[in-house]
Fold:
Amino acid sequence: MYGVEPYIVNFAETLLSQRYPHIEFIFVNDGTKDRSVELLEELIERKYSHLKPQIKIVHKANAGLPAARRTGLDHATGDYIYHADSDDWLAEDAIAKIAEKIAQTDADIVYFDFYKEYPTRTKVKHERDYDANAQREYVRNMYNHRSYASVWNKCVRHSLYTDNTIYTPQYGYAEDCYLMSQLVGYSKSIAHLEECLYHYRKGNPNALTKQQRKKRKREYALNFIDLYEKYRDIPQEKNPVAAILDDIVIQAGWYSILYNLDLFDNYPWLAEAIRRAKIRGRADVWIVAQIATKLIALFK
Structure:
């Protein structure tokens, strides 16, 4: 919770009114300066005091969204982890439907459709269907914006976090894709629940997506360069993000060229990595731009 005073009561009501009984609710106060925490506590006292044994409110100094998610995870004890953002809201019985899908499939990750809520309209967003063994395709499509990398449309087996080293990004922009690329890559099975269970709010002026374009692209590139450095030496068959390593370096190079970033200077290995990377279709960077990036990398 940070700067969500106008939204926290509506969000919390949709969460705390879920009829599935076996939920541990963890709210992370990321050092918010408004009345978000006070309003949440008043709501719990007024309407949901019977849930107090299941509710944790964790207070921490402000450190941004990735660190807040990690803090929540550190306090979680459930078999599955579900992240929600406190300026959005859940559909009625969303958690019960997710739990039912888990019971049916025993999937490591259940992902589902959602609503994108604009100030004056609602848009339904459907996910692609992947079979249980399509993790690498899913990871690459998330990175290249052909599928949704959001944490809030996925419920993840807790052991994926604890049985593997899951890294947390430094920057908030694209932190969900950074995290989910690892988790989906490590998963043994995935299952699509074809129902809209989440309302994603567009129009919050404090949202990360309101940052200026150059800063966003820089943070995006830096987050994934970090992910590349952490996984580049792991053999492909054991590497959860192997499917996107070429995409990462080519996109970082292209962003450095297009937005006048200093990535080639700050990462001396980047030009060589781009020269080795394969040109691939179905990527965010068009093939012509991939070729141009590789040609420029020849002179770096």
About this structure: The first strand starts at residue 25 and ends at 30. Strands lie at 25-30, 55-60, 80-82, 89-90, 109-117, 122-125, 154-157, 190-201.
